[in-house]
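I'll show an entry:

:::
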Amino acid sequence: MNHRAFKLSHLVALLLSCVSCAIGPLTHVGVAALPPPEYDVVVLNGRVIDPESKLDAIRNIGITNGTIQAISATSMRGRTTVLATGLIVSPGFIDLHSHGQDEENYRFKAMDGVTTALELEVGTGNAEQWYAQREGKALINYGASIGHIPARMAVMRDPGTFLPSGDGAHKAATESEIEGIKQRIETGLKQGALGVGFGINYTAAASHWEILEMFRLAAKRRAPCFVHMRYAGLKEPTNSIRALEEVLSASAITGAPLHVVHISSMGLRATPLLLQMIGEAQSRGLDVTTECYPYTATQTMIQSAIYDEGWKEALGIDYKDLQWVATGERLTAESFAAYRKTGGSVIGHAIPEEIARIAVASPLTMIASDGLLDNGKGHPRASGSYARVLGRYVRDQKALTLTDALRKMTLMPAQRLERYAPMMKNKGRIRVGADADLTVFNPGLVIDRSTFEDPAKYSEGIVHVLVGGAFVVKDAKLQSGVNPGKAIRAPVSR
């Protein structure tokens, strides 16, 4: 090699060495120069809380094709990017008890952070038809149980619509009628209903044996039973303790999983005793769970069996504690009698505030709304339950931690269903591979704004809500022209 060639080669080597020092080995130059992956949606710099993994840290989330693809402390690019600095990023809230299953109610659910709303107490009488009616038309995810109430109403030709008012409520079923009810429930389970719904308080004439037969049917498929118990309150002998004994016994005898709905509106002042019973049952291996809503009043139809003779003693309230939903007026003996004849929705101010707080804070309870709005009329729980827990009970009263509250709204309801409906294993979590159902909220501002007089008011502080990676709420505003909600359903069999 001549001297000039040597100097040139030496210079080239020196330059390459300098480049290597600046950007790393040459073998990595091509990789480092490539842009990071581009996701459909990126949520940047939010405080991500995942109750399952116990992650609570500032992270970025990348979403593609409706699924969480990446969770990272490093930056990422997306076709759509939202900055979540100062905000909480949570799994989307899951409501196991949402009677409002239409466009009006889905809007209020989304603005309260709910990404999945399920009708599991009353349920439906025809699962195939119910799901078909909502396919491609829902703002959020939806699902239903097959209901003992609608099955009983159909078999016994009850004239009621949503709840029974005739033989479905007040007549004992014959053996052949019980078989007819069972056939309808079995059909619904084969069609992918999420379990069996019960409102025993509304079907007051249903025998203990009839209820046990329905539990046996559910147990064959390990389908959960979602139960509004037979009695409320403390009055002996028809009280909430005895009612809980009935369904705990049915679960123990048959092996059917049990979920007791709205524990505080059944227990009233006895709620701590019911929670103790459920905890004891769990400690002995019984598959039983429960829920509550964060309000001090009930709501149901005034013509239902709940308001049959003896309601004042059972609920510990009087006419003045009843509020007519249509007008907001408080009732008297005269107006109560008149409205019982015409029928309609009534609110019962029956739950003491300290009981509502105990129920919300209990580690045993999930949060569920029991909500229904009809043309703007109803109960504030339909529109504000989740924001109320986060604002009133977490931030203001410190009755429970933020992480515990989010667990009650996300992971616990997903776990209640996932053994029977495996698709729920990808709900209620923030992890790679999970469905991109996310709720992003401001912990300092989140609160319910709905009232008993004006229940149709959106919650505040819910900033973004994604369902399957699609924004249904963005920058605290509902998005129009989107219906990403999917059916939540158990496996269909024939």
Notes: Residues 1-34 form one domain. The first strand starts at residue 38 and ends at 50.
